[in-house]
Amino acid sequence: MKIALSRVKQPYLTACANRSAKIKKRYQKLVDGRMLVGISWQSTGINQRQTLLKSTILEDWTSILSQQDCYFINLQYGDVKEGLAQFQQQTHLMIIRMRR
Questions:
Q1: How many CB atoms lie within 10 A of CB 3?
Q2: What are the structural domain ranges in the chain?
Q3: pLDDT tens for residues 36-70?
Q4: Residue-wise over 38-70: b if at least 16 C-beta within 10 A, else e?
Q5: pLDDT tens digit string along 8-45?
Q6: Closest Cα to residue 56, out of 96, 87, 85?
Q7: Which DSSP helix (H) or strand (E) runs through 38?
Q8: What sign results for the dihedral spanned by CA atoms 42, 47, 48, 53?
Q9: pLDDT at 86
Q10: Residue 78 — left, alpha, or beta (φ > 0 → left; ψ -120 to 50 → alpha)?
Q11: CB of 30 closer than 8 Å to CB of 71
């Protein structure tokens, strides 16, 4: 049985209110009035063609990540620690890893 999400009147997924509030409070302290922006740059799908179409490299985002009025959070799935460290070393731009 398929559900047409456009017809659903209530949220399909809901976040835990307590956990959301804690995370929001933690990041509001860090951002110092800047806009909080989450970024994901690679698809981890099974279909290789779709993965290539949906993925990019961090270097393509340099001009966006250079915005001083934004605070960037890594929302990327998988182990990207090495690539992220290399990007940050080359560009001196920070993308903060979200702690759970």
A1: 8
A2: 34-100
A3: 999 999 887 777 777 777 888 899 999 999 999 99
A4: eeebbbeeeeeeeeeeeeeebeebeeebeeeee
A5: 677 778 899 999 999 888 888 888 889 999 999 988 77
A6: 87
A7: strand 35-39
A8: negative
A9: 94
A10: left
A11: yes
Structure tokens, 18: 């307590």
Q: How far apart are CA 66 and CA 60, in angstroms?
A: 11
Give the mean pLDDT of the chain: 85
Residues in contact with 21: Cβ distance below 8 Å, sequence separation at least 6, in sequence order:
none
Rounded-to-10 torsion of CA 22, 25, 26, 28: 150
The type of residue at 90 is Q
Closest among 24, 55, 30 to 42, alpha carbons compared: 55
**Secondary structure (3-state) at 82:** helix
Tokens of 66: 């250079």
The answer on pLDDT for 94 being more than 60 is: yes
